[in-house]
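Data availability (excerpt). All sequences and predicted token strings are deposited with the supplementary files. A representative entry, Thioredoxin, is shown inline so that the format can be inspected without opening the archive.
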Amino acid sequence: MATDAYDGEAGQSIDEPLHIESGSHLDDVADEHDVVLVDFYADWCGPCKMLEPVLERLAGETDAVIAKVDVDQHQQLAGAYGVRGVPTLVLFADGEQVEQHTGALPADRLRSLIEGYTNE
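Structure token line:
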């Protein structure tokens, strides 16, 4: 997978989760796409693993970009967003953080969260 997957056409939909490499990478992705759902996760987290197929489906079915941040590899970034537990989901719309939820949310709730910002 190319680490520059977010480059190219601005606003272009990405059909699979995008792994974030740094704070500036996350900033760029949030700025370049209308709606970005960021999953702060850990490989050892059971609820994170349950959420993974849901997020993969949403990446393909919605206009939002699904981004993933491994909290073990990016502890400072997780700290900057006040992540105290995993999974933590942060939603960006038009480059601004608009929602933050700790814990795995059901697919229909995630879809309605995303659609609340993509249909404006």
